[in-house]
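Let us begin with a simple case.
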Amino acid sequence: MQARIAKTIAFIDTVQPAQMEGSELREVTITLRNVGLKFTGQDYLLKWVNPNVYFHVTTAYNILRHNGVELGKQNFLGPRD
């Protein structure tokens, strides 16, 4: 898992700000069960990526708690500044 995280961070470090310009309007197509779902970049982020991230973070949190890891709401929410 650590190697995968490192590889992802290395990839993110290669992305230049100019590459992101206008990305909120670019068409993004994902294929599920042979059906293409089309989004604008902004809709993809807000309506597909964010809900999936929250789902997986919440699921991992719940699995860890179920298996006895002592986690509370503050661990889920993060530190307060």
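The second case is a distinct protein. As before, the sequence precedes its structure tokens.
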Amino acid sequence: MPVSGMAMGHVPLLGRVHAGKPNDPDEFDGETALIPQFLIDEDPDTYACLSEGDCMNRVYPEGCLIAISPNREPQNGSVAVVTIDGRDAVMRRMYRTTQTLVLSPDSFNPEHEDIVIRATDDHIIEFGGRVVWFQSKDEME
């Protein structure tokens, strides 16, 4: 059943974000998605992606629509969209210390492992934002 009873608004649907093995982000051209309007009011730059893979399936089922706020700084324990070296986009639970970034799966699949990046590693990390909402694909219009 689609979301009902609240004001909805359109945001850009930028593609798929991989909740599994890091991959190049897919891109959709000009498509939009409906998310709750209050999320857009809080951050007009909010965008949406589709989840792909099973490394976050304890909290976000594969194929669900996720809303990402690029202006909300991910905090320890929040789910972030992260790009590694400009090409590997992943959605993982994030933990940060002064010297280490850990991108941790939250999955029923025991094969997924933490991605650990140390300050001394030669990687460029970009935060695409914090996941603020999701909608199961079975409940999307």
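The helical segments are 37-42. The radius of gyration is 15 Å.
Keep these points in mind for the review questions at the end of the chapter.
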